Amino acid sequence: MNNTREVEVVVIGAGQAGLAGAYHLRRSGFEPDRDFVVLDHSPVPVAPGSSAGRR
Ligand SMILES: Cc1cc2nc3c(=O)[nH]c(=O)nc-3n(C[C@H](O)[C@H](O)[C@H](O)COP(=O)(O)OP(=O)(O)OC[C@H]3O[C@@H](n4cnc5c(N)ncnc54)[C@H](O)[C@@H]3O)c2cc1C
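# flavin-adenine dinucleotide complex -> structure
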């Protein structure tokens, strides 16, 4: 099975900065999933600190 995908932009990190970037990409006409994706290595935000918590 081939799971390779091509998108124009990959945002690494779904913290405040990454999500703000994704928001502005969307407002600029980029379609999520088609033109850009946001990847994060943490499954869910965990308090405290960063959007993903500190490990
Ligand atoms: C203890 C503590 C308390 C805080 N309290 C406050 C507060 O009360 N109010 C406030 O405004 N700010 C607070 N801050 C600051 C605020 O959390 C940060 O300024 C803000 O989260 C930074 O956002 P960011 O998107 O740059 O990074 P982050 O929120 O850290 O997001 C980065 C994301 O990238 C992901 N990531 C990292 N490396 C990779 C990788 N290699 N591949 C994929 N994903 C990756 C992480 O999982 C994370 O989700 C606090 C910080 C700390 C440490």
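# post-check
Strands lie at 9-12, 36-39.
The two ends are 34 Å apart (CA to CA).
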